[in-house]
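This part of the workshop introduces the protein records we will be handling. An example says more than a description, so a record of this kind follows:
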Amino acid sequence: MQWAYRAQKRVGVNADEPEFAPVSGFDGSVAGSRMVQYSPDGRYFAVAADGSTRIYDASTLALLHDLAIEKAIEIAFSPRGTYLSTWERPVRTETPNGAVYNKNLRVWRTSDGVLTGEFERRQIEGCFPQFTADEKYALRLAGAELHVFDPTRFDAGPIGRVRQENMASFSVSPGERPSVAVFFPEKKGAPAMVRIYTVSSMIDTPGTAAHVAQKSFFKAEKVTFKWNASGTSLLLLTATDHDKTGKSYYGETNLYMLSSRGDFDCRVNLDKEGPIHDFEWNPNSREFIVIYGYMPAKAVLFSYRVNVIAELGTQPRNFIAFNPQGRLFCLAGFGNLAGTVDIWDRESIDKGKLFTLNASNSSVLQWSPDGQYILTGTLSPRLRVENGVRIWHCTGSLVHIDMIEELYQVTWRPSAKVPPFPQRIPAAPTASTAAAAAIAKQASARPVGAYRPPAARGSSTTSVTEALRRDDTPSPAYVAPGNRAGGRAKRVPGAPERSSANKKNERPKAAPVMGAADVGGSGDGAIEKKVRNLNKKLKAIEQLKERRDRGETLEQTQLQKIDGEAELRRELAALEA
């Protein structure tokens, strides 16, 4: 096994247990890395960075190709790793005939790095072509048409199509007989619907292919597709951005089942009010789990015919993950939940959860290809402190910790063939568990100290809390302001003024303090405040640049802020000199 990560300053590839140590011979000093990706069969490893996108042999980590792509934002492999698709931010050019955009979506052959197809695609969402499982065909949505291509000859144009108005998204099924589900949102009072076409019919009767299954529904502005592994059944999560009844902040969600042959469809009836948090197929294709309802949410295991197999209890959970073999599964609570992960055995589900682990602040959870380990990661920018990777055994034991500053992505290397899972759940490796426990104990024993703002870290300035902590002089007893020497009692509004005789006995007021120098200090506090403000502005500019690089459209004022970055950095350098 192997796992890889992407941080701000480097890309790393690590081996599996017992040490989970970095793989030797891989140069991870990749400037401006934006994404890392393994091919689904585990043969290739790609890194998108500034100036190029690199393709490596995942086994030897030898560099195979260095594709000349300036700034690829997203990359994706085809199911067998034969093709790599890349998307760059579109570039607009003004011509006498109007604005023209570059062909920023490209498809490359991984064996030799040859460009096989390129298209214009302005939006990043759903940008990549979807390949059938055997990679014989690639499908792409273009306006009112869904096109089928021969991926070896993209330049020859589509060899099949479906033409329908109002197509919003689609999903190609896995399996030997590929189908494609197409979503049509609500329009002019007509309900939304999903239609399923066979890919072969789109080629045999281009433009006039008939659908083999259809499901209509209201309250559907967008749809999430999830096919089972065999491609015979499809789960549809419909959602709206707003709940018109006002009961939910998250909008309205519903779940439907649809057979690819058109012989079965229904709504999945859920008996607890509230949103659907997650749903997931078992890799065996015969059952699925849904977590739904207001917190604490309810989890239920259904058959592929939407019959209840088992109720898994009510807990604050919102995430489901089966191991690749379908034997074990996790029910976890992430985001604004505590990060508790329950591990269940499908073969003894009546006994309840087997193990529980605490993966607080995790942004990602993945099972290893052998189904015996769980990888969790705390990622930036969701959380910018305590970033790192934790690897757990399926019995709940922590076996590895790797703290990585500004970690953005982490993933296991997939396996072309899923290895079998042992009949009995294996025990955790003792050496790895002991080493991880020692690291965790050392981290928990580390003194935290007083909080200091980022601009003051590394300087000689002592915070007020630190000064109080270092001062061993006992604090004097409390004296009310009115009883302090030379003090003045607080005047109660509406009370009569004191006599002029008493006023004559009062001490004269002290002159107001006009600056830091008047109290024996220096102007360093004002400089630190300016430094903090400049760093805050630069951080906001970095976030705007990330949004721009993802293809989002920025306002003119936001673009002006980005243009002013150089001036802010000069000002900051002058203050720190």
Observations:
- The helical segments are 199-204, 430-445, 464-470, 500-505, 524-549, 556-563, 565-576.
- The first helix runs from residue 199 to 204.
